[in-house]
Amino acid sequence: MKLFRTGIALLAALAFSTTQTHAQSATTGGITEKKAELTDEQLKRWSFLDLQKDTIPGMSVDKAYAEFIKDRKGAKVTVAVIDSGVDIDHEDLKSVVWTNPKEIAGNGKDDDKNGFVDDVHGWNFLGDAVNENLELIRIIKKGDDGSDTYKKAKSELAKKRGEALSAKQQLDFIQSAKSKVDAKIGKDIYTLEELRAMDPGSDAELSQAKFIMMSIIVQAGPTFLTDLKDFEKQTREMLEYNLNADFDGRKIVGDNPNDIKDNKYGNNNVTGPEKEASFHGTLVSGIIASERSNGKGTDGISNNTQIMAIRAVPNGDEYDKDIALAIRYAVDNGAKVINGSFGKYFSPHTQWVSDAIKYAASKDVLIVFAAGNDGKDLDIAENRSYPTDSPDGKTEIADNVITIGALNYEYGKNVVANFSNYGKNNVDVFAPGVQIFGTLPNNTYKPEDGTSFAAPNAAGVAALIRSYFPKLSATQVKRILMDSGTPLPIEVELGEKKEKRPFAEASKSGNIVNAYNALVMAEKLSKNLPQKKVKG
Fold it and tell me: Crossing angle for the helix pair 7-14 and 224-237, nearest 10 degrees?
């Protein structure tokens, strides 16, 4: 499932909250915390900023371009985005979309003999499918085999259904309040000022409705109507598709998802049948590589980057088969970095994905995975998530995978996003993942939260390293991202339960990704590589 935070959790909380500020005043670990709220421009670009200079825990990307990259010329790097699809016609992406040099567009032939017809910009392993069950539903539908996996799936289903029904009740509560306010004001779109001016008189229900809507608007800002629609959409889809055992999304694809050898399926429509459904992959792609300095939207982390779009993540849980084949497709077609902003807690065919990861390692391809958004310690066995380079939670099967947790833009105890998974052994490093502004379908832009968007921030830095220092291996790039990062000598609160732990103990590296430091380290390491002997 795509790893981002939608309006559900946000609005459920906002309905009962009051205003709060991001202003800080304390001094922590030698860094003075931001004393004022971020400006709109700072918030749009906070992942590019520098902790020392701006007191914002960004990745020092602007510093890297100003002080290190400057006029250097790098090599082209292909980054594969395995996701929900990509709007390859987006104004900020179309110039950076990978084009298969061996394929002739539109001739209906497999010109490069790679098994995929007209795969000009990538491949769509989902065909025309959009919605899908969660993996736990697929496990339960196979019947009770007496396994612990089945029992865990049944238990988790009860929890998930309870959460979905609770979300539906919260949605109904909010929509009821909004309908009362709409009727009083006489329209369904209004400003905070108009809402404040509304006089509920002696109507207690209307007074409560006004309070609820004011709380939501103050917190969510101008996007509150969009957030409300997102809340409604995901709640409905969770009940109708993700948790509905009577729904079968895979029959549209036409393959056997339990047969890895049945691999001739899908099509070349990398956006997917519904452009709006590609928003997740479109945003991920924009974070990595949207065109820089064109005056539109925002800049990508990496220049010299091409995005290979691979559609394999539905609205629901991805199939292990699709992910394994997607990784192999990316490797075989020249990707040097793969971004995977998806994940789940059940994986019936883990070995297929593990084999694909090891195949990528053998071809020197770096894989960047998102850690997940449940505020869990991934070092605890029952919290184990997939895909992973450590199926047993202890031993890595390859050294080409890096797992990314999400940072908040507030330096201090809340610097780790409260939704981000963490783990001293199973999360490698942190990167910005809250209010990450980027590309959405149909030439639009919006900020989103999630480890989904922390991963491409790290993948963008990895692409920079592989562009300017192409002799470095995937393993070396992984180590650079971890070892060159910025340490935070502070105690932080982790997860929804606010577990207190030194930031150094929240991940394997104890660092946050730093683009400038990474490039400096990459240059030093590159200079120390053994030189090839010239014959003669």
Answer: 120
User: How many of the other CB atoms lie within 10 Å of CB of 95?
Assistant: 12
State the pLDDT at residue 40: 84
Q: Which residues pair with 487 in a beta bridge?
A: 511
Phi and psi at 369, nearest 5°, equal: -110, 150
User: Nearest 5°: CA angle at 40, between 422 and 369?
Assistant: 25
Residue 445 β-bridge partners: 439
User: What confidence category does residue 41 fall into, taking pLDDT thresholds of 50, 70 and 90?
Assistant: confident
Cβ neighbours around 414 below 10 Å, total? 17
Q: Of 337, 257, 283, 262, which Cα lies nearest the Cα of 80?
A: 337
CA nearest neighbour of 459 among 61, 100, 72, 184: 61
Q: 450: which residues sit within 8 A by CB, 6+ positions away?
A: 3, 4, 5, 341, 370, 373, 406, 419, 433
Residue 382: CA atoms inside 13 Å, Cβ hemisphere, count? 6
Please, which pLDDT band fits residue 216 given cuts at 50, 70 and 90?
Answer: confident
What burial class does residue 191 get, using C-beta atoms within 10 Å of its C-beta: 0-12 exposed, 13-18 middle, 19+ buried? Answer: exposed
Structure tokens at 288: 């990595």
Residue given tokens 């922390």 in the structure block:
454
Element (H, E) at 493: strand 491-494
Element counts in the chain: helices (H) and strands (E) = 15, 15
**Distance of alpha carbon 315 from alpha carbon 323, whole angstroms:** 14
Domain boundaries, the chain: 1-37+136-248, 75-132+257-527
Comparing C-alpha atoms, which of 386, 126, 143 is closest to residue 249?
Answer: 126
Alpha helices for 132-188 (secondary structure H):
135-141, 148-185
- Looking at beta carbons, which pairs linking 182-189 to residues 24 or more positions away fall under 8 Å? 189/225
The answer to whether 341 and 370 have CB atoms below 8 angstroms apart is yes
pTM for this entry: 0.92
Asked whether 134 and 244 are in contact (CB, 8 A), the reply is: no
Token pair belonging to 229: 């629609």
What per-residue confidence (pLDDT) applies to 462? 98
pLDDT at 230 over 80: yes
Whether domain 75-132+257-527 has CATH 2.60.40.1180: no
Task: Provide the percentage of residues in the chain whose pLDDT is more than 70.
Answer: 92
Closest CA to 461 of 417, 419, 431: 431
Closest by CA position to 269, among listed 119, 409, 141, 404: 119
Asked if residue 387 has a cis previous peptide bond (ω within 30° of 0), the answer is yes
- Find residue 82's DSSP bridge partners: 310, 340
Give backbone dihedrals phi and psi of 249, rounded to 5 degrees, phi first. Answer: -80, -20
Q: How many Å is the Cα radius of gyration of the chain?
A: 23
Cα torsion through 493, 495, 498, 499, rounded to 10: -80
